[in-house]
C-alpha cells in the first residue's frame, strides 16, 4: 500500500509543510536574537494552555494559542524593549509550570474519561491524526504567520543586529519585539499539533541553527532555515510512516538533529569583509 495516497498522510504532509515553513522562518530570528529560552518556555506554556482548555471543557487549540501568544506578550512586557531577559522568562516559566500541574490534575480527575489521550497528544503531537478541517486551519494559520514575518523581516533584522542604531533611525524596536513574540507564540501553538510541546523547540531551533552555520547572509539563511525545516518535516513524516513503531514527532526531530549535526562537518564559506580604507 502506497502511504502517499492515504488521506492521513496527505493531511500530515500538507499541515506539516505549512507548520515547518512558519517554524523555519520564525526560528531563524529566534536564534539570531538569542531568544531560544523564550521558545523553550513557550513549549511548556503550550502544554499548560492546552490542559487549561481541556480542564474547562474547551477545544485545546483555543488554550494553545491564547496561552502561547499571551505568555509571549507578557514576557515581552516585563523585558526590555519587548525583548525579555532570562530573569523575566524564568519567572514566567516557573509560574506556568505550576499552573500546568494544576490543570493537569483537574483534567485527569474530572474530564479525562472523554478524551483520555489528549494529554499525550499535546506532549508528543498527533500530525497523523489531523482531520481535513484541522489541516486547513493549520495551513491558514501557518500561512498568516509566514506572511506577517516576511513583511516585518527587514526592520526586524535591523533591530536585531543593531538595536541602538535602529532606534535612532526611528524603527519601532519595542513594537517589533512584541509583534515577533506574538508570532513565536502563535508558531509554538501551531507546531504543538505536529511535534508536541516537548519537542517543538527542536523544530524552531535546529533548522535555523543549521542555516546560520552554513551562511552568514541573513536572507539566504532565512530562506535556508525555512527550506531545511520543510525538508526535515518531509523526511520525518516519511520515516514515521514507513516505520510505524517510530512516533512521527521523534522521526521529525531525529531528522532535524541529524541535519544539524552534519553542518558541523561542513566548513561554510564566509563572506569576506571589505578591506579597511
TrEMBL record:
Annotated Gene Ontology cellular component terms: ATP-binding cassette (ABC) transporter complex
Keyword DNA-binding: no
Biological process per Gene Ontology, one example term: response to zinc ion
Membrane-spanning parts: 12-31, 51-75, 87-107, 137-159, 171-188, 194-212, 219-240, 246-266
Record's keyword terms, sorted: Membrane, Transmembrane, Transmembrane helix, Transport
Record family assignment: Belongs to the ABC-3 integral membrane protein family.
Membrane topology of the entry: Multi-pass membrane protein
Natural source organism: Streptomyces rubellomurinus (strain ATCC 31215)
Protein name, as recorded: ABC transporter
Amino acid at each position: 500500500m502506497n502511504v502517499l495516497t492515504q488521506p492521513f498522510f496527505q493531511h500530515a504532509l500538507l499541515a506539516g509543510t505549512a507548520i515547518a515553513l512558519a517554524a523555519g522562518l520564525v526560528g531563524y530570528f529566534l536564534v539570531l536574537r538569542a531568544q531560544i529560552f523564550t521558545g523553550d518556555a513557550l513549549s511548556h506554556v503550550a502544554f499548560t494552555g492546552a490542559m487549561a482548555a481541556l480542564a474547562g471543557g474547551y477545544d485545546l487549540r483555543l488554550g494553545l494559542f491564547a496561552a502561547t501568544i499571551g505568555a509571549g506578550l507578557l514576557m515581552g512586557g516585563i523585558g526590555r524593549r519587548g525583548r525579555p531577559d532570562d530573569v523575566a522568562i524564568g519567572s514566567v516559566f516557573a509560574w506556568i509550570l505550576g499552573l500546568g500541574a494544576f490543570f493537569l490534575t483537574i483534567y485527569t480527575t474530572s474530564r479525562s474519561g472523554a478524551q483520555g489521550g489528549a494529554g499525550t497528544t499535546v506532549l508528543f503531537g498527533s500530525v497523523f491524526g489531523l482531520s481535513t478541517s484541522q489541516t486547513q486551519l493549520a495551513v491558514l494559520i501557518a500561512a498568516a504567520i509566514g506572511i506577517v514575518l516576511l513583511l516585518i523581516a527587514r526592520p526586524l533584522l535591523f533591530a536585531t543586529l543593531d538595536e541602538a542604531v535602529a532606534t535612532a533611525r526611528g524603527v519601532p524596536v519595542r513594537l517589533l519585539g512584541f509583534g515577533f513574540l506574538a508570532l513565536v507564540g502563535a508558531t509554538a501553538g501551531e507546531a504543538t499539533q505536529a511535534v508536541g510541546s516537548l519537542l517543538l523547540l527542536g523544530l524552531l531551533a535546529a533548522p535555523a541553527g543549521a542555516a546560520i552555520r552554513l551562511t552568514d547572509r541573513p536572507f539566504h539563511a532565512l530562506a535556508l532555515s525555512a527550506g531545511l525545516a520543510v525538508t526535515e518535516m518531509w523526511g520525518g513524516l516519511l520515516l514515521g510512516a514507513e516505520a510505524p513503531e517510530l512516533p512521527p514527532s521523534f522521526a521529525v526531530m531525529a531528522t532535524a538533529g541529524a541535519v544539524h549535526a552534519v553542518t558541523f562537518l561542513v566548513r561554510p564559506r564566509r563572506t569576506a569583509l571589505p578591506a579597511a580604507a
